[in-house]
Every structure is written in C-alpha cells, then in structure tokens.
Amino acid sequence: MNGVLGEVDGDLLHVATMNVRRPLPRVLTRRADRWDRRRSALMATLSRESPSVVGLQEVLPGPAQDIAAALGPEYARIGAGRGRGGRGEGCPIFFDRSRLELIDQQQLALSDSPDVAGSRSWGNPLPRAMVIGVFRDRRTRASLTVINTHLDPFSARSRVRAAEQIRREVRRRGLPAVVVGDMNAAAGSPALEAMTRGDLMTDAWTAAAERVTPLWGTYSGYRPPVRGGARIDWILTTPDIVVERVGVDARLEEGVAGSDHLPVHAAIEVPR
C-alpha cells in the first residue's frame, strides 16, 4: 500500500495529524477498539506514511514508545502529558530530524494560566494543551511554526477560548505556521470561525491545489467512512503556505482500523 499523498518530494513538506485513540481497559471497549487488535494497524499506518512532521492526540506513554519505534530512529518527539508535571495523555509532535531542525519548543495549557501545566478554565473538565515547535527546514532553510492540540469535546465555550489562544500564539510567533489537531469542531463551528477569523489561518482542504481522496468525515468510530461527513480533525495553515495536495486516509490495514479517527495529510510548500 502506497502513501495516501503519493511521493512527497522536492521542497514539499509532508505534515499530518491523527488522533490515535488512547487504549482503554478491555472490559470497557468493543472488539474494534481494543488496543491489542489495532496496535499493529496503527503502527503500520505511521510507518508507511512517515510524514516529516505529525501531530498526534490521545497519546499515553506506552503507545508513545510504540509510535517512536514505528517511525524510526530519525524521529524525535516534543510535548509531554497535559496533566501536572507533564503526566498522562498528551498531544506530542513527532518530526523527522533529517529534514527538520528544532529551533524552539514550548507546551502551554489551554487556560487562563497557560504556563501552569494541568490548569483548567472555561468549563472543560480535563486539562487541555497545545504543543509548539519552531523548525528550520534543512533542505530549503525555511522556518515554520507547528502547533498541535486537542480541544475539549464537552464545552463549546472552552473550544472557542482555546482557539483564540492558539490564534494569538500564531500571530505572536510571526512565522509561516501550521496548526493541526483534533478540534472536536466541524467547519462553520464557532471554534473554527475563531481560529480562521481575519484570514490568519486557512483550511488546508479548501486551499489545496489537489484533493487526493474524497472528503471523508474524520471521526469514523471504526465504521465505514462517510463522504461529506463532519471533519473534526484539521490541518490549518497561514496563507503564505502553498498546499499542493491533501487527503483523508480511510484505508484499513488488513481489514483493521488503527484508530476511531482518520488521519489527515497535506503536502505543503513553506516560503523561504
């Protein structure tokens, strides 16, 4: 099975996002959701695609080790758990060190106290965070900010406030930027409107010169994908970034889905 975008070569950069679905106790899951059933499928997907930079969500320490092994020794990780002391579930960024040089990194809580790990505001019952990486492309020497996040599924107010915080961070950094993540919000939602207001960020799907797959809804729940379904997993870019190709990968690995979310991929060109 080939990569969903085909060959991403030349000066193009392959970026991706995927909610990997945290493992739960066996008694709480149906067969399709069991980690021991889908683990190898998820690792095969990541190994085959090998994006230059990927934002993952719902990553616990055990699966993080599996993901690192699947991507290979050239990859490094930034981002810790979202709880106090960096514990628990996180939304790390993995990147190919042979292509990208890490210049700066930061993790902020999505709250009124962003420097306090594990802090909560705005009605979300669990802490939320964004992981920020600033990279220099070793091939083109272009600089790029990448932000990965996982917005709250319960509180619409929390999603909007978090989107506004992410938007401020993009503006503050002043570089070409990509924001990826599980936003738990569809096109036209208040959270996405807050993120893209004023044309600061653009939806990579609509901006792409080529869409290599149908517009699948990105939350599948292990069911067959729905054409035109809600996209809650996003790749957003600043308008100075050219999006050449984009796709939502609904393929199975030997009949098994690696997660209840579908990965989203984009081939982009970052201005030098």
Describe what this molecule looks like in 3D.
By secondary structure, this protein is of the alpha+beta class. Helices cover 20% and strands 28% of the residues. It has a 7-stranded mixed beta sheet with strand order 3-4-2-1-13-12-10. Helix 3 links the parallel strand 7 and strand 8 (177-182). The longest helix is centred in the middle third of the chain and has 18 residues, at 156-173.
SSE arrangement:
Elements: E1 13-19, H1 35-49, E2 53-57, H2 61-71, E3 75-78, E4 93-96, E5 100-109, E6 129-137, E7 143-150, H3 156-173, E8 177-182, H4 190-196, E9 202-203, H5 204-207, E10 210-211, E11 233-237, E12 242-248, E13 264-269
Parallel strand pairs: 1-2, 7-8, 10-12
Antiparallel strand pairs: 1-13, 2-4, 3-4, 5-6, 6-7, 8-11, 9-11, 12-13
Helix pairs in contact: 1-2, 3-4
Q: What is the gist of this entry?
A:
Helices cover 20% and strands 28% of the residues.
> Which bin fits the share of residues in helices?
10-25%
Percent of residues in β-strands: 25-35%
Q: Mean pLDDT, as a whole number?
A: 96
The main β sheet shows up as:
7 strands, mixed
Which class do the helix and strand fractions yield?
alpha+beta
DSSP strand count: 13
Strand order within the widest beta sheet? 3-4-2-1-13-12-10
| N- and C-termini, Cα separation | 33 Å
**N-to-C SSE string, H for helix and E for strand:** EHEHEEEEEHEHEHEEEE
Low-confidence stretches: none
Shape: globular
Supply Rg: 17 Å
- Our count of helices gives 5
